[in-house]
């Protein structure tokens, strides 16, 4: 029935599907997006996984190391590093020994991305369309999260660092599946910008306004809380200000390092979600890293620090003999924030954070798993943050994914563990070009903005930049435009999305349009849900 519905919806006409993709599209459940089946890869992956489990006696551990506002091009292995005056040897080594994704997608900003990673659902479904700021209500309270499911399956779970998926009691990490949380609830600039005389002299030097912000209802502390603890003074560590902010990442690194060491002797598998403070604006490097980058700018010094901290965690895994049983994912939550230049990151693509142009949502993504993921692979196969949820669940043996809601993520185990294809393999079944994901759907707040299939990206709604009325123009400064006929870009020919092929390549419009149509049709049964959108909270 489900298959027929997808075919009726015209995702790909059956004949075309057979011809183009060798019949590998799988329409397997009404509440799931279509997946690309690669039966050979999956069989080989399941065999490797079974052998590993036999050796270790447990399911694999997961380390997610997620940076903040670091662009696609910042790491050396993506063209940055020395080019940016900020070498990243640890990230580069990880990519050289693992899988470097060139088409890994987040959402346009922090909270929508992080909530998507936690739920396997696009923002238009989990409802966090924009980051909740300064105590603004709204969060993950109604969602089923990855750590909740892993926890039920016997995992030890920790969230460290930046959360930003809601500050209410029901949405904080220690109440959303994590055994313990050490970090802050919001985002770095919420704790510092109004304290900094350089950016906000009108607040710093006006006691009335300064006190008003001080008394605003959002937690200003570094938090250390066990599951169930909330709103008690004992969980509040130091207040975050212009001095204490400098050392947060180092403290969080110490905590994660200790956790990894502690788990070495445990028979429980674990999930460590480590969200860094760096390199979100504004960056205040600790003394140890101040001026350590060749560029000498705060963003760059902190990027060097983030690389160093990741190196420490990696070494700890190595020293404690856990590398073979730990899947590592290093990424960033969105493209560069350009309103904060020069404290901002880099992308070779069009647009920046806040937009659905490639610059806003295409981010670095490195997977590493010693002995399991082939070293030195790179792939342009599509990977979306929502895929983490079903992929990790499948690896952990969690089978009871929610049935009462739509899950956009697809299980990417087969793709991640696939071996490089022999020369001459058709691209449709070569893991260098294809993953388990058919398409990436980009939403600009509550509007369907674009869909990417292969190298083609059909853009219907997008952000156009305003340059005359902003201090430093960027992705949040523009206005939304709806293109009359849509723009169609070939990202291989035109990574910057500057030359639309819509009329010259009309044959693609019905094909890509049918994928879009099927996606939109899912909202008939599973309507959009909006919780946080700009200044509005629903
Ligand atoms: Ca971010």
Word description of this protein:
Residues 12-20 have low confidence and may be disordered. α11 packs parallel to α12. The longest helix has 22 residues, at 298-319. The protein is of the alpha/beta class and 538 residues long. The strands form 4 sheets. Strands 3, 4, 5, 6, 7, 8, 9, 10, 11, 12 and 13 form an 11-stranded mixed sheet that branches. Strands 14-15-16-17 form a 4-stranded antiparallel sheet, with helices on one face. The protein has 2 domains: 2-30 and 439-537, 2-Layer Sandwich (Arylsulfatase, C-terminal domain); 35-188 and 241-403, Alkaline Phosphatase, subunit A (3-Layer(aba) Sandwich). A hairpin with a 2-residue loop joins β14 (440-444) and β15 (447-453). It contains 16 helices and 19 strands. The two termini are 35 Å apart. Calcium ion binds next to loops. The site of calcium ion has 6 residues, from loops.
Q: Give the end-to-end Cα distance, rounded to a whole number of Å.
A: 35 Å
- CATH class type of the largest domain: Alpha Beta
Mean pLDDT metric: 93
- Ranges where pLDDT stays below 50 over 5 or more residues in a row are 12-20
Radius of gyration: 22 Å
Shape: globular
Q: Give the CATH architecture of the largest domain.
A: 3-Layer(aba) Sandwich
- Give the domain tally: 2
The computed structural class is alpha/beta
Classified in CATH, the superfamily of the largest domain is Alkaline Phosphatase, subunit A
* Main beta-sheet annotation: 11 strands, mixed
Name the hetero compounds present: calcium ion
Quantity of strands, as a count: 19
Task: State the helicity in percent bands.
Answer: 25-40%
CATH topology of the largest domain: Alkaline Phosphatase, subunit A
Number of helical segments with 4 or more residues: 16
Strand content: 15-25%
């Amino acid at each position: 029935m489900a298959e027929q519905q997808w075919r009726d919806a015209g995702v790909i006409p059956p004949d075309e599907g057979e011809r183009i993709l060798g019949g590998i599209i799988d329409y397997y459940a009404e509440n799931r997006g279509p997946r690309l089946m690669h039966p050979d890869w999956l069989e080989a992956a399941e065999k490797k996984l079974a052998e590993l489990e036999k050796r270790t006696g447990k399911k694999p551990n997961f380390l997610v190391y997620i940076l903040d506002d670091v662009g696609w091009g910042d790491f050396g292995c993506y063209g940055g590093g020395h080019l940016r005056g900020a070498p990243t040897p640890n990230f580069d080594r990880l990519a050289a020994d693992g899988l470097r994704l060139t088409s890994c997608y987040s959402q346009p900003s922090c909270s929508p991305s992080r909530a998507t990673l936690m739920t396997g659902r696009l923002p238009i479904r989990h409802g966090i369309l924009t980051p909740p700021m300064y105590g603004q209500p709204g969060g993950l309270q109604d969602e089923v999260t990855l750590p909740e499911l892993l926890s039920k399956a016997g995992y030890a779970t920790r969230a460290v660092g930046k959360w930003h998926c809601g500050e209410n009691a029901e949405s904080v990490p220690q109440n959303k599946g994590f055994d313990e949380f050490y970090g802050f609830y919001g985002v770095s600039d919420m704790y510092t910008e109004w304290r900094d005389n350089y950016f906000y002299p009108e607040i710093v030097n006006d006691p009335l306004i300064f006190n008003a912000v001080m008394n605003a209802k959002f937690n200003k502390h570094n938090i250390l809380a066990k599951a169930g603890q909330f709103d008690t003074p004992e969980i509040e560590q130091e207040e975050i200000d212009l001095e204490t902010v400098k050392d947060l990442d180092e403290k969080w690194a110490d905590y994660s390092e200790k956790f990894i060491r502690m788990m070495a002797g445990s028979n429980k598998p674990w999930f460590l979600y480590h969200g860094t403070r760096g390199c979100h604006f504004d960056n205040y490097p600790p003394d140890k890293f101040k001026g350590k980058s060749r560029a000498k700018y705060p963003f760059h010094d902190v990027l060097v620090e983030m690389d160093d901290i990741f190196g420490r965690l990696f070494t700890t895994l190595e020293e404690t003999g856990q590398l073979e049983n730990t899947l590592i994912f290093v990424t960033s939550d969105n493209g560069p924030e350009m309103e904060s230049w020069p404290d901002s990151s880099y992308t070779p693509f069009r647009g920046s954070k806040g937009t659905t142009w490639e610059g806003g949502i295409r981010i670095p993504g490195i997977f590493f798993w010693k002995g399991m993921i082939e070293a030195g692979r790179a792939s342009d196969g599509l990977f979306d943050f929502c895929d983490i949820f079903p992929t990790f669940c499948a690896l952990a043996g969690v089978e009871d994914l929610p049935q009462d809601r739509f899950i956009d993520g697809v299980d990417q185990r087969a793709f991640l563990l696939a071996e490089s294809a022999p020369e001459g393999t058709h691209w449709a079944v070569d893991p260098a070009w294809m993953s388990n994901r058919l398409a990436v759907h980009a939403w600009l707040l509550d509007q369907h903005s674009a869909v990417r299939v292969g190298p083609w990206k059909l853009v219907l709604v997008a952000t156009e930049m305003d340059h005359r009325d902003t201090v430093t123009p960027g992705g949040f400064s523009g206005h939304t435009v709806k293109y009359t006929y849509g723009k169609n870009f070939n990202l291989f020919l035109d990574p910057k999305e500057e030359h639309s092929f819509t009329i010259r390549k009309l044959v693609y419009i019905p094909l890509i349009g049918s994928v879009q149509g099927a996606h939109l049709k899912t909202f008939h049964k599973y309507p959009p849900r909006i919780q946080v959108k700009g200044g509005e909270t629903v």
